[in-house]
Amino acid sequence: MGNSGSAVKVCTDHQGGINWLSLSPDGQRLLTGSEDGTARLWSTADSQCHGHFQGHESYITFCHLENEAAFTCSADHTIRKWDVVTGQCLAIYRGHTSIVNRILVAKDYLFSGSYDRTARCWSVDKEKQIQEFRGHRNCVLTLAHYSSRDVLEEEEEEEEEEEKVSRDLLVTGSTDCTVKVWWVSSGRCYQTLLGHTGAVLCLILDAPNRELFSGSTDYTIRTWNIVTGEQLKVFKEHQGSVICLELVNRHLYSGSADRTVKCWFVDTGERIQTYKAHKHSVSTLKYHAGILFTGSGDACARAFHSRSGVLQKIFRGHKFIINCIQIHNELLYTASHDGTLRIWDIRGICKRNKRRLKKERSVQGRSSQKGSLSRLFNNKVGCMVQQENGE
């Protein structure tokens, strides 16, 4: 059963709750965005704060970290780009008329979603709005991006020449209960995905399999074909809003306000595991090396063996909801509304899980060997019977 763990480091530099935590692609830095209106840059090598980004006039809702630049969005209606070395603000993207609650960086594009009911596309380098996506009847909460090259065969691409040049598409989820797919080049809506009866809180995209997953306050997860817009499956077992999703090896993990995480086999829609023990909503989750890590409104993070659902460890110390988690070099990072970033050593859990996986493979190998010998024996018996019968 799970046992409590103590953080190896507690970072208390922020003066307000931390709303988001982003890890750079190279794993060298972490970025936190806070209610105090600032973002901070942390080194994963020494866990020290190496950057303090100030300039927003209200709280930071979300942040995104690249290797050389950081991006933050805020309730002050703006998005900012920062130099990770100097801490200098490199660009301010203005245009939204309400809280900007989500950003996404892809190629040379910066996408944003806002309470002003629009999503927008910006040139990362030119500090300039390229496109506006208008059509939702309420705020845009979540974003995803893909290229039609990832999902369409050449003969299926019969769009306008202008759209064929770019082939980039933006997916938006809104509190108006819809998901929309847009051509980036023209701003035209390509698909409106109808079916949810509550706000769409989270999206996850599997472009190679042409699938999109959406989680909602209607307690369901829905799977869509992103080429045809067809609704493929509805996952219905949650008893509360679906807050977060993670997709790993055709297994979908969903965290909910019903205090559970569920694991679904995507190909059949079967629910194959439920992870219990949370005392409040599951706000964030992350799969790592056969272990499912969760953060909850009960101020605890937890580690579950992903296959068996057994609770491995409880990480106690935060005072309020854990909003985001990241994992790097067998360290777990948890960011909370209590304003702290906590760092936990998960080497012991990872090591135990590796031993367990090794043991399972060994048992499976022996079973497979026994099965082969059994088949060989049965084949021999079959041959003897055939010979005795003169066949």
UniProtKB/TrEMBL annotation:
Gene3D superfamilies from the entry? Answer: YVTN repeat-like/Quinoprotein amine dehydrogenase (2.130.10.10)
Q: List the CDD domains.
A: WD40 (cd00200)
Keyword flag Repeat: yes
Query: WD repeats span which residues?
Result: 11-43, 93-132, 169-192, 193-234, 235-274, 315-347
The protein's UniProt keywords, in alphabetical order, are:
Repeat, WD repeat
SUPFAM superfamilies assigned to the protein according to its UniProt record, in alphabetical order: WD40 repeat-like (SSF50978)
Q: What is this protein called?
A: WDR86 protein
Organism of origin: Dryoscopus gambensis
